[in-house]
Each structure stands twice: as structure tokens, then as C-alpha cells.
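From the shared-data thread, chain only:
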Amino acid sequence: MPEPASAPEFAIITKQEPTFYFIGVTTGRSSIRKIFPLWAAALGRPEVVLEGMDLKLHDRPEAYRQAVAQIKYDPLSLGGLVTTHKLDVITAARDLFDYLDPYAALCEEVSCISKAEGGLEGRLEGHAKDPLTAGGSLDAMLGEGYFARTGGEVLCLGAGGAAVAIALHLISKPQAVDRPRRFTAVNRSAGRLDSLRTLVGQVGSDIAFEYICNQDPLRNDETMAALPPGSLVINATGMGKDRPGSPVTAAGQFPLDGIAWELNYRGELDFMHQAEAQRTTHRLRVEDGWLYFLYGWTQVIAQVFHQPIEGALFQELARLAESVR
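Structure, as C-alpha cells:
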């Protein structure tokens, strides 16, 4: 195990008990606070405690480096989950990681920080679990052949880590019936759209991707109104949780027989409430981010604890989570 980092760059806190970190913005409001102790006990690790690290949106690089260094250099800091800061963490602290998994290297993001075991103790690893999280959530939501059955497209409002993960999952679907004809990504800044465009170009796809740089909800309304029936509209902006509001207006028309997927499960959830208002008139299916939350956390905990979580065990953890939701 490496020795604690020397001053002056890092101030490492020596933990007294095994600690799993949650690096986010408003971690104290998350349901994981109540859920984690139940899960840790069910997984045979009741001694592990959860500790939140609240960082500002696009915080100083030093803040991200300190967070990663705490995990890297303290023996009882086991690892952690990164939410809003996935891209910023790898940008600021790439040199502190000894290994990045293929998705982390491809997507330029880290959502899971863990330490290797076996003969590689102490090696700090960065993983991008979102493609797996998105995959589990989407597959459970859509079932097989959804896009062939409906002719629907995908409109993803937001082009950050979650959007990239969803795009990668759809691109990687081996059967054409499970891939949409078109995927439209909308983001308020061009940088993340450019990153997504580059990534899609690297992996290649028969899905037609369109990239729209826009932050005007009225224009998003127009884009959404042009979707064919059965389309999937995703709020991947963080609006309604980390930032107020919604990427569309209350007058925006969701696609008939489509799905509105709010990736958040807590907060004001304006987008979800807008969709719910059209549930009957548009025969709209409305999904929140609870299943995404469950897959996201269990994927990371499995990596940090070096313990697979799937099948009956996943269902049991989902039941425990629902009991305190």
C-alpha cells in the first residue's frame, strides 16, 4: 500500500474505518445515505461507511485532485462513486490513476474509483460504469426490438457522461432492431457535443447522429415536436436536480406513444412533471431515474468491493432500497 502523499499538494486524512466515498454536488440529499448501510450489511461489509464529498459544479482542479488523492493514498479509503464531476475528475487528476478501463479512456470520464486487489494492491483504477448502467436501465425499460416495433428515435437533452453512455450502449447493440434510426443530442455548449461526435466517429455506427448546440427551451420544444411517434426523450442535463428548471417548456409536445426518461430521481424534477401532464393525452410512458440510480450504484459498489452484484442479489438490494425510498 502506498504511503500517504507528502505536503504541500495533498492533505490526506487517515480514516479510522473503511470508507466508501460519494463525490457529487448535494450528496446529503441522496437516498443512498439511507440505502448504503443496508446494502453494506447485505453484502457482508457492515463495517464500511459512506462519506460524501460535495464539490462545486466545475470546481477548481485542486479540489478534484485532493478528492482522488484521498482515496489513492489512505489505506482505508476504499474507493467511490462520482456523479456530476465525471469529466472534471479525469481532466484534473488523470496522472493520479494507475489504470483506466477502456470506457474511461474512450469517454474521457471516471464514474468509479477503486483499488486493485490480488498482486496489484494499491493500484488506483478509474472506471466509466455509465455504459453498463445505461445498458441495464435501457434494456429493462425498452425490452427487445423496441425501435423496430415503434420506429421511434432518440432525443437526448444533454451531452455529458450519461448521454455518451446511452449513445455507446445503443451503438453497441448487436441487433439492428434494438438500434434507433436517429439519435439527436442537444447541449448548451459545443465542447461536449464535439466530444460525442468524435467518440461516435471513432467507434462507428449505422445510427444517424445529429448534434444541436442550443440552450433555448423553445427550440428544444421544436426539436421534440418533430420526433416520430414512439420516440424516447431523455433529460440528461441535470436540470431539475443540480440546476433548476427543465430543458423544455410546459408547452412542449412529447411524442405520441413515446417514452420520457428523466434521469434524475430526486429534486424538483420539472421535466418529469411536464411529461406526466401529457401521460394520458399523448399515451406517454414516463420513467424516472430510480432504476438508473440502482444500476449505477450497484455497478460501482461491486467494483470497489470486488464482489459481483447481479441476478437475485441485485433484486434483493433493489428491494432493500425500495423499503427506504
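DSSP finds twelve helices and twelve strands in the chain.
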